[in-house]
Amino acid sequence: MRTAEFEYILPERLIAQQARPRGxxxxxxVDRGTGYLSLDRISALPGLLAPGDLMLLNEVRVIPARLRxxxxxxxxAELLLVRPLVGSAxxxxxxxxxxxxxxxxxxxxxxxxxxxxxLTEGTWSVEFDPPLDETALAAxxxxxxxxxxxxxxxxxxxxxxxxxxxxARTGRAVAAPTAGLHFTPELLAAxxxxxxxxxxxxxxxxxxxxxxxxxxxxxxxxxxxxxYEIRPExxxxxxxxxxxxxxxxxxxxxxxxxxEHSLKVGCxxxxxxxxxxxxxxxxxxxxxxxxxxxxxxxxxxxxxxxxVAALAGRKPVxxxxxxxxxxxxxxxxxxxxxxxx
Length: 341
Description:
This protein is α/β, with parallel strands linked by helices. The protein has helices at residues 45-48, 134-140, 157-162, 185-193, 232-243, 253-265, 303-312, 314-326, and strands spanning 26-30, 37-41, 54-58, 60-62, 66-70, 76-84, 89-95, 106-107, 112-120, 123-129, 141-142, 170-173, 197-203, 226-230, 248-251, 273-277, 290-296, 337-340. It is built from 8 helices and 18 strands. It is globular and about 60 Å long.
């Protein structure tokens, strides 16, 4: 298996710059049993599920994780929060990372950020003054839209609202669990009325998930772990459904990754509690719990595309992507959806 096997051609015009109104996105349905592809709307989702299914949501909140700063010499810098460290420090992705110096404070819109230690190429431990509590972060941060969504003057208030699921509750994601962006409260209610149970977990989405694989061999790629929490009531529901042979429908690759990691460490049982998912899902992976997957269309050579290919097959997925291009579907975070059954 080579990384080049997960390439596809995408016209730039199909990279969604604005999201459709919630509940109106187009939907491509992929039947793993027959290979059949059908086109629909996300509003049809309840009818595509079966009574007795369980739909698994990631209710993490996206934080305003992108910070703009000035270096001591006057040049600009950009910091993307990755995860909190000890005290008031965070691990951040910095740009330009090579221009940062230990102890040389960066000036923020309010307060300062002091690089302390280079952690990896491109990431630093940075201490913030004042500490980045919710109020301070709201004052200095902005919506961490992916770089392929272009905003000449930065993200808008509409972006802040749209780049968040309607069921977001808590956490510190630096990127949205984008499959969930399609839902409205009414659509969620319709899923429940169909007889589909809903369970929720929290996976703190990090930026590493979305990095393209640069190595020729995907196995040489390092995928950063992401922290997640499964509460006891969700673990009970998942184990009950899986134990009875019913289907878990994962909304997004994040819920899939957390579920499969928990089943792996639990030897077939979903374990409640806090853990860190370091699971890299590639074709050949044996899924223990994911019976269906609602997801978006992902970047070429990405670990997310590889996960979808592991579930549905590389050739069928790439054929579905080619069909999506021909049909004018929109791609990536603000794009349309795919349902793998």
